[in-house]
Amino acid sequence: MKSSQRDARVREFAAAVGLDLVSPPVPGGAYSPVVSHGDTAYLAGQVAKIGNRILLAGAVGSAVTVAEAKEAAKVCALRLLGALIDAFGSLDLVSKVLRVNVFVQSAPGFDRHSEVADGAWKLLSDVLQCEVGHARTAVGVVSLPRNASVEVDMTVALFQV
């Protein structure tokens, strides 16, 4: 798959959920959505937000189902890809996903964090056409910003320009 097709694909997925990738993510604090150093880009965590609305709030395993959380993880991944497009103009520079961290606001006893994380990875894989080979952490937490159910951050390798 040609890299330029990645941009079209991410925009197609984003449009399907009503997410505007033209406007860059607005940080919720004093940080940058993307910081690059050499051939590596570090992306700040993104929650599943469309406009100013949190798509899914509450603890997974009680207020939120695993299926809903997987969909929220996909939106988080879309926002990460949108941040890359904003920072670099295209997904063309992404050579490999190195690491994905998924934080799941979890009800007591919830232990299906990896299933939620798979929602983000499926989207990333579909858009970037990459194989499994990244490192990943999927953890349960008590709370996330704005009561979001899921937050995802990512580190990617970039092609040298």
Automatic annotation (TrEMBL):
Coiled coil residues, start to end: none
Protein origin, superkingdom: Bacteria
CDD domains from the UniProt entry: YjgF_YER057c_UK114_like_1 (cd02199)
Record protein name field: RidA family protein
